[in-house]
Amino acid sequence: xxxxxxxxxxxxxxxxxxxxxxxxxxxxxxxxxxxxxxxxxxxxxxxxxxxxxxxxxxxxxxxxxxxxxxxxxxxxxxxxxxxxxxxxxxxxxxxxxxxxxxxxxxxxxxxxxxxxxxxxxxxxxxxxxxxxxxxxxxxxxxxxxxxxxxxxxxxxxxxxxxxxxxxxxxxxxxxxxxxxxxxxxxxxxxxxxxxxxxxxxxxxxxxxxxxxxxxxxxxxxxxxxxxxxxxxxxxxxxxxxxxxxxxxxxxxxxxxxxxxxxxxxxxxxxxxxxxxxxxxxxxxxxxxxxxxxxxxxxxxxxxxxxxxxxxxxxxxxxxxxxxxxxxxxxxxxxxxxxxxxxxxxxxxxxxxxxxxxxxxxxxxxxxxxxxxxxxxxxxxxxxxxxxxxxxxxxxxxxxxxxxxxxxxxxxxxxxxxxxxxxxxxxxxxxxxxxxxxxxxxxxxxxxxxxxxxxxxxxxxxxxxxxxxxxxxxxxxxxxxxxxxxxx
Length: 487
Prior knowledge:
CATH topology of the largest domain: Arc Repressor Mutant, subunit A
EC number: 3.2.2.21
CATH class of the largest domain: Mainly Alpha
Helix content: 40-55%
Keywords: Activator, DNA damage, DNA repair, Methyltransferase, Transcription, Transcription regulation, Transferase
Strand order of the largest sheet: 5-9-8-7-6
Organism: Acidihalobacter ferrooxydans
Domain HTH araC/xylS-type: 89-187
Number of strands: 11
Radius of gyration: 23 Å
Low-confidence stretches: none
Largest sheet: 5 strands, antiparallel
GO molecular function, one term: methyltransferase activity
């Protein structure tokens, strides 16, 4: 039993099959050796046979096998964990990107600005398992997901999940599930229909305002790189040396998105799925966030009108940083036009266009030395873009999350062309900082304007203290619901 999980409360949630707790805890059943999600349809075990654990990795560490009915690989949340410890969240962010596939815990800790010993201690406390155990569990659950949702070969699944070899993949699946991968696949009967590309399910915890998410992305879609049409989001991508396109739609009754991914190197598939979860903010606990914001009368009506408003992320942090610089002191539409011109002039063409998607967004090395005349930028902004691109070219990890939000903002504002507003916006959408808050934003200040006048940024910051640690979600509501009406 994890010290932060209260047995009686968890058992009540288990009996109710309460979806709000899906990803908050897992039930290890000592009489069967299996661990389940709180929403498992199986007959609930007796309370004395239950051990409640904070993550799938913690259950795996204790020798419990994943349930084949409720399928823990479908749990919403980063690596099957939905806690709020910031350093742990940042570490999981990097683990899901493959930081421990080729690296070690010491290197991961260095990137987070903590010691390896402290990082291990945090994981033991909040996740119930070591970082290496979390990475291994993540590989196993992602492989199980691909077995059920794709027709990829066993070799491709082993590579995509980060095992490095089919033998390691087979051994890990046999140890975990007690049967070989081929038998697991035959028992699931859920393989996707033949389709071009790989289609995967991306579960989330409701509510989810898909219409608002698509509307936000549509107004900022870069011509040739991404598009929103027919209730779908499509774009080109480059990821870990792989190239391709993706097509995302929503299956709202099933509380999941469906992504069809066309990719030339299957090894990068796990990173693509991780980025999609960040782009669509699928790991947030919106029930808790909305409930917190609704305590403030300013948001109570807004939350009732549009539950499930999420903070749109980005596919690529550099792309978002360029967009943020382009958008300084001009409208969203004007910034989108400039981004489209930049992509048309410097983007790499795809071998074959799909649904109007024919370009990859230009990489730092290209923008760093490019002639930006003719795009419509001022000389100062063009210089800022080139300097930002040069900095990213020289240090590809420059726009990664740091140990605290304050440190992330401090490091971002050291970059050319990035002031406090731009830094907060990048932290909010690219670094997935839930408490980022661009207090000087004109739209936020207008949303709180009264007959007595408009608040100052300092006054807005003071007002926003009550919204911590979800100020980014408050900002989004003020942008999309400035007068309190539905978005």
